[in-house]
Amino acid sequence: MEEVPHDCPGADSAQAGRGASCQGCPNQRLCASGAGATPDTAIEEIKEKMKTVKHKILVLSGKGGVGKSTFSAHLAHGLAEDENTQVHQSGSGWSPVYVEDNLGVMSVGFLLSSPDDAVIWRGPKKNGMIKQFLRDVDWGEVDYLIVDTPPGTSDEHLSVVRYLATAH
After folding, report:
1. Which H/E stretch holds residue 98?
2. How do residues 50-70 score in pLDDT, each as one tens digit?
3. Domain extent at residue 49
4. Are 93 and 156 part of one and the same domain?
5. Signal sequence span per UniProt (predicted)?
6. What is the DSSP string of 120-157?
7. Cα dist. 164→46, 95, 149 in Å?
8. 88: which of 16, 95, 157, 162 fits an S-S bond (Cβ 3.0–4.6 Å)?
9. What is the DSSP letter of 103?
């Protein structure tokens, strides 16, 4: 998988796809076209959905295999003090899978046809899924949202931070 430059200006920047750091990036053409930018309506929808989430916690690392998912799961269990893997669609969005009464989980893995399916996505597809999880999942009133991110230091991390920053 190709790396996104560490000094990436981001898809919403005026320099998107045009800066020196964009040379050789697999998303350069997409960013330069403006197609990778997030419409204001999506930001507003995310902001509205996140109003009922008190604390947002991102678990990040530039490297895979360091225990991000394990840490995220233990942190969630620790904060929740109990698996049905069906995601349901309702008028207010996807319903998370509840592991316990007070612990809901949403994962790309729940949306796959088989648990053996691999997910190999590039920037725009990953960013779209992140946006969809923040905008379309009906989290309800919760104290914590823990985001277990994919490994790396690429655009999706910047996107999550940008989306959540709009919701304070």
Report:
1. strand 97-100
2. 888 888 888 888 778 888 888
3. 41-166
4. yes
5. none
6. ---HHHHHHHHHHHHHHB---SEEEEEEEPPSSSSHHH
7. 8, 20, 14
8. 95
9. E
> pLDDT digit string (tens) for 14-58?
777 787 777 777 677 777 776 666 666 778 888 888 888 888 888
Joined together, the tokens standing for residue 165 give 């920053």
Query: Which neighbouring-strand residues pair with 100?
Result: 103
Residue with tokens 């009922």: 52
* Residue 93 three-state SS: strand
The token pair that represents 69 in the structure block:
């998912």
Alpha carbons 142 and 96: distance in angstroms, whole number: 12
Beta carbons within 8 Å of 20's beta carbon, 6+ residues apart: none
User: Is 11 within 8 Å of 127 (Cβ atoms)?
Assistant: yes
Q: Nearest Cα to 21, choosing from 165, 168, 158?
A: 158
Q: Number of folded domains in the chain?
A: 2
Phi-psi region of 48 (alpha: psi -120 to 50; beta: other; left: phi over 0): alpha
Q: Are residues 75 and 128 in the same domain?
A: yes
